[in-house]
Amino acid sequence: MTNLHSCLKCFLKAALIGSLALTLLPAAAQEAAQTENHGINVANMDRSETPGDNWYLYCNGDWIKRTELPPDRPRIGVFSQLDDLSNKRTAALIEEIAKSNPAAGSGQRKIADLYNSYMDEAAIDAKGLTPIRPLLNSIAAISNKKELAFALGQTLRADVDALNNTNFHTPHLFGLWVAGGFNDSDHYAAYLLQGGVQLPDRSFYFDTTEHGKEVLTKYQTHVSAMLKLAGFDNTDARAERIIALEHDIASKHLTLAENDDIHNANNTWTQADFNSKAPGLDWAEYFRGAGLAKQASFIVWQPTAFAGESALVQSAPLETWKDWMAFHLVEEYAPFLAKPLADENYAFFGTVLQGTQQQRPRWQRGVIVVNRYVGDEVGKIYAQRYFPPEAKAEAQAMVANIIAAFRKRIDALPWMAASTKAEAQAKLTTLYVGIGYPETWIDYSGYEVKADDLFGNAWRGNLFEYHRQVARLGKPVDRHEWSMTPQTVNAVNLPLQNALNFPAAILQPPFFDPQAPAAANYGAIGSIIGHEISHTFDTEGSTFDSKGSVRDWWTPSDLAHFKAATQKLAEQYDKYQPFPDLHVNGEQTLAENIADVAGIAASHDGYVASLNGKTAPTQDGFSGDQQFFIAFGQNYASKGRDAALRQQVMVDPHSPAQYRADTVRNIDAWYASFNVKPGQTLYLTPEERVRIW
Ligand SMILES: [Zn+2]
Fold first, then answer.
1. What confidence score (pLDDT) does residue 127 get?
2. Cα(113)–Cα(338) distance, rounded to whole angstroms?
3. Which of 157, 497, 518, 523 has CA 20 to 30 A from 247's CA?
4. Nearest to 74, CA basis, from 638, 517, 611, 525
C-alpha cells in the first residue's frame, strides 16, 4: 500500500493480516534492549565488510552471525527486541493488576479478566464449537439473497485503516474506516474499503511462482481442514468453491499500489448510489444489517471493487456464499477457539505464510489480545511507569530541531513555488506531534469482559470498537487523538489530522537514549522522526492541506518535479532482488522509501545544527557523522525467514530492512564519512543520488 500517490503511514507495518497468528508482532528471543551500551553498538558490526559494498553487514554483520532466529518468530530485529521488552512489562503490569483484585466493572478488572480468559486453555477446549454454534446456525438458516445481504451487513467491522496504520485487508465483504472526511476534515466520515478474501492480498491469488502455487495448494487443504473441524461434510468440494469465490473477489480488488491514490479514492456515494453504481447486493438490507441505515453517505475507496463484489453476491450461488461466510467466521475466530481450530489456523497463517515453526508462548499472545481490546487501559499505566517527563522533554527538543531543519530545506528548494512553500510551512506550524502517550484515553465502560468467555470477549471487543467508531460519525474530529498505544514500538503520521504519534515504547534505547551521544540519537530515532515528518510533504501529503482537508496545494509544476525525482527512487528499489523470482516493488514501497531518504537527510541537518559548530566526540574511533550513519543502519538489524520476507515484499509498503538501511547511498555526507568510491556496489554518481527535500 504505498505509492506515487502514496500513503502516509506508520514507520513499519507491525500488525499483519488475517489471523491472530499473523498479528503477533515479531519479537526477539533475546533479552530486551541493551541498556549498558550508550550510542552505536560496535559489537554488532562486521568491520571486515566494506561500507560501500555491504553497508548493511558492516553495521549489523556480527549481530546477524551470532543471533539465532527462534522457531516461533518470522523475523527478529531491533524493533522486535523492544517489542519483547514492552510485552514483558505489559505482562508484569497485567499480573500486578490481577493480583490487586480490581473492582468489578473497572477498566483494570477488564484487563485481568480478558487476560485470564485467554490463558484458561482447559476452559476454552472444553467448550469446543459451542461458542460459535449459534452463529453457524444462523448462517445455515439464510434462505435467500436478501437475508444474505442483511447477514453480510452484520459482519461489517471497523477493521481497516486506509491512511494511518494502513491496513487494506479485511476478510469481511467490506471494511469500515472512520476518520476525518476528505472533503470536510472537521467531521468524522464513513469510509468503505474492499474486502472478502483471507489471504493477505489479491496478489496471492494470482501468484504463478512455484512458491505461490504451493501456497495456494496448501490453502485449499487448509480451508477444507477448517471446515471439517467446524463440522461440515464434503469439505473438499466446499473448499474448492470458497477459494474460487475468493479468487473472483480478488480479481475485482485494486492493488496495494492503486489503493494509494487519494484522488481515485475520494468518491462520495449516497445509499442510492450503491444501487445504481454497484448493483447486485441488496444494499438497503446490507446497511440495515450493519446498523448504518441512517448514514446518508460514504466515501467508497475502490468503486470498481464495490461494483464487482456486489455483482458477485448476485451471480454466485447462495450456498457458496453461506459456506464462504461460515469459513470466514471460523477462520477469524479460530485463535479464540479450541486447540484443534487454533492450531490449524496457525499451521497455515503462521507456518505456511510466515515460515515459523511454533507458536509464541501463550502469555505473549495473551498480552497481544489485551493490547488489542483494552490497549489504552494498559497504556495509561505503562506511560506513567515507563516514560519519565525528562525523556519526553528531550524527545520534544529533537523534534523541534528536525522540524527546523525541514523548514530550512523547504525554503531552499529551487523548484517549489513560493505559494506552495508557504502552505508547507503552515503545515509544519499546525502539525501536532504527540510524544509518549495521548492526552485522552478510550473509555471501555461499554465493553463487557467475562473471565470465562474468550470467544465472547473477542466478539464483543470487535463489536465494541465498531460501535465506538460508528457513534463518532458526523461528530467533530479530535485532532489530538492517537492511533497507537504508548506500549507500541512504532511511529505514525495521521494525514487527516496533520499529526504524528511517537509512542513511549519506541522512545527507548537503542533508538533513543538520553545518555547516548547526539550522533546516535539523531541517526536512530531522529531519522524515524524525520521519516514521519516527511510524510506530511510527500505525494500524499501534498493532497492534504494544513487543516487536513483534501486540497491540491502544490502547483502542477511542483508535482511534476516531485514525480520525476521520486521515479528515480522507484527505479532504484526495483533493482533490489531478494529472491531470483521476486524483486522489491519500487512503486508499492515508494512513499516509505521517500520518507526514509528525506528522514535521514533532515535528521542529519538537525544533528549538525545541534552541535552548534563544535566537533562531535568520537566513539570507538568513529567520528560523529560515522556514528550517525551507523546508528541509522543499526535501526534495521533484522533476521528473518524466507516465507516471511516473500510475504513482506508482496504486501508491505516498506522495503525489506536491508534496503532501508542502504538508502544512505543517496546522502552525500555518507560518501565522505566512509570514503565510498566509484566501483563499489552501493556507489551512486552524484546525479543518480535521489534528493527529494
Ligand atoms: Zn512511513
1. 97
2. 18
3. 157
4. 638
